[in-house]
Design brief:
Blueprint: H1 14-22, E1 39-44, E2 47-52, E3 54-57, E4 60-67, E5 70-77, E6 80-89, E7 123-124, E8 131-132, E9 143-146, E10 149-152, E11 170-172, E12 180-182, E13 187-191, E14 194-199, E15 202-205, E16 224-227, E17 236-239, E18 259-260, E19 263-264
Antiparallel strand pairs: 1-2, 1-6, 3-4, 4-5, 5-6, 7-8, 9-10, 11-12, 13-14, 14-15, 16-17, 18-19
Length: 265
């Protein structure tokens, strides 16, 4: 990428910021110092961006303009222009946008700050003392950045590890903003008003014939029974009451014949 001259050292993060924070082809990054022009600060997707006046490099031009208490950062690349609205600030200071610049602290993959907030977004990994983005794995492979701290992941009741992985059971990513591991046979979050259960490594519907049993070994469909069929490792709801089917445990055990050794004959 080459060297970046001091007054423009953050413009090169434009594409990375846009992809990560805005899912747009454009976005602007921080300038190191005020150029005498009003500075504009924008916060999107957990990333703070600041620009004072105009910066340009490698075919990209970004300009900050103000209107009352509000302001706009406008960037143009290859004839395409995008604008971001923000708030007027006195200066941009010496910090950078997402990714930072060599020597900056508090930004993802950079060192944690020691005299202010450790990381502007995410967690300070206590082992490496580097900033980690929320949802990414901390060092050691058994913890994940959740909120502002690295927390254990993978076991039931803990956050899912990156990639929606759990050491046992299922990753219930419908539960909350922070996906949680659920033990086999335990309830997952309701989806569309229907009960879900952790079975065979994933959360899914339960309670009707040929589906896993709901938590507590419950089947919600009539004439079904929760049982572990031959060759299966998990309990599922099976039809009952007809010849060669399991005997029902509620109502009439068998519609035809008698219940012998748990099977309708």
């Amino acid at each position: 990428m080459g060297s970046v001259r001091p007054g423009m050292r953050h413009v090169w993060t434009l594409a990375a910021f846009a992809a990560a924070a805005l899912a747009m082809p454009l976005g602007c990054s921080s300038s190191a110092t005020s150029s005498g022009s009003p500075c504009c600060t924008v916060s999107e997707g957990g990333t703070t961006v600041c620009l004072c006046g105009t910066e340009a490099t490698n075919g990209t031009s970004c300009t900050s303009t103000t209107a009352g208490a509000g302001c706009t950062i406008t960037c143009t690349v290859d004839g395409t222009t995008e604008s971001l609205s923000g708030t007027v600030s006195a200066s941009c200071g010496s910090t950078s946008s997402e990714g930072g610049a060599p020597g900056d602290c508090g930004y993802p993959d950079g060192p944690c700050c020691t005299d202010t907030t450790a990381c502007t977004d995410g967690c300070c990994d206590p082992t490496t003392m580097e900033c980690v983005i929320s949802g990414e794995q901390c060092s050691g492979g058994t913890s994940i950045c959740s909120g502002t701290t690295c927390q254990p992941c993978g076991a039931a009741g803990q956050a899912c590890c990156p990639g929606e992985q759990c050491t046992d059971g299922c990753c219930d990513y419908d539960a909350t903003a922070n996906p949680t591991c659920v033990a086999p046979g335990a309830a997952c979050a309701m989806l569309g008003g229907g009960q879900q259960v952790c079975s065979n490594g994933s959360c899914g519907s339960c309670g009707t014939a040929f589906q896993p049993c709901c938590p507590g070994q419950v089947c919600t469909e009539s004439d079904t029974i929760c049982t572990t069929m031959a060759g299966e490792s998990t309990a599922q709801c099976a039809e009952c009451g007809s010849p060669d089917e399991p005997c029902c445990t509620s109502g009439v055990p068998c519609e035809i014949g008698t219940c012998t050794a748990g099977t309708c004959q």
